[in-house]
Specification:
The structure is a single chain. This protein is of the alpha/beta class. The chain contains eight helices and eight strands. The chain has helices at 21-30, 51-55, 88-91, 112-123, 143-153, 173-187, 207-216, 228-234, and strands at residues 5-6, 35-41, 63-64, 67-76, 96-100, 130-131, 156-160, 191-194. Strands 1, 2, 3, 4, 5, 6, 7 and 8 form an eight-stranded mixed beta sheet that branches. Strand 4 (67-76), helix 3 and strand 5 (96-100) form a beta-alpha-beta unit. Helix 5 packs across helix 6. The longest helix has 15 residues, at 173-187.
């Protein structure tokens, strides 16, 4: 499946990635993409950039090497209330926002009810566009509730290629992702393919995510980032882009 924009990537600013913004944009252009989302880890992730980084993104050109840049963040979901680690005054000025649960940042007991409730609450946020890697078995989730809420709120669910790597550290990702994608197919819920790239070579590389789509015979029309314009129309931030 050919996509026009990778919606989940990180640069050196995230603290554990290996390329600059310019290098990532050039790599995306070399791969023939039309767009690239730069989604740095938000401030509660150890080693990432400060609040000031996100406040200052207004100075960065939204077009480089002929591709459109969506400059945003990967928020940390902090608790059952779905609170995140950037204020609305910053989020409303970004182009795209993913919300994810990460081990160093989630401050609640990791029960299926707590995790599912956290996802449900954060999806109600007007500037949360995508739920990142909801496949990690260390954070069990009720996929039926997740998909139902995604449909109600117009939030995209991510099939994260990095999660599905055989050497990855997240647990039961293929099983969980298959369950999620089957639910999305059954209820007509949109997904995105995210590389979660921390290296320029991984941009828009989805071999494991595409395997999930093949196994489920998932319809291309429900994959938002096969088209840059479709993706922009689907995200909640899309109305201001």
């Amino acid at each position: 499946m050919r996509v026009e924009i990778d919606t989940h990537t990180h640069t050196l600013a995230s603290g554990h990635a290996y390329n600059t913004l310019n290098e990532m944009a050039q790599a995306a252009a070399d791969k023939g993409l039309k767009g690239l989302a730069i989604t740095e880890h938000a401030p509660e992730m150890p080693g990432t950039c400060h609040l000031f980084y996100f406040q200052n993104l207004r100075i960065v050109p939204r077009k480089k090497y002929g591709i459109e840049l969506l400059l945003g963040t990967e928020l940390n979901i902090m608790n059952v209330r779905g609170e995140t680690d950037l204020p609305d005054s910053v989020l409303e000025r970004l182009d795209i926002a993913i919300a994810s649960i990460h081990m160093p940042c989630f401050k609640a007991e990791r029960t299926i009810d707590n995790v599912t409730a956290a996802y449900e609450k954060v999806m109600e946020h007007p500037y949360v566009d995508i739920i990142g890697h909801p496949d990690d078995g260390r954070f069990p989730v009720d996929m039926k509730r997740l998909v139902k809420k995604a449909k109600e709120t117009g939030t995209l669910l991510e099939v994260n290629n990095s999660s599905l790597r055989p050497e990855g550290f997240r647990e039961n990702t293929k099983e969980n992702c298959l369950e999620m994608v089957k639910e999305c197919k059954a209820h007509g819920v949109m997904i995105v393919l995210g590389s979660d790239s921390h290296l320029d070579a991984d941009i828009a590389e989805y071999p494991y995510a595409e395997e999930i789509l093949r196994e489920t015979d998932f319809p291309e029309e429900l994959v938002a980032n096969v088209s840059l314009e479709k993706l922009k129309a689907c995200i909640k931030h899309g109305k201001k882009l």
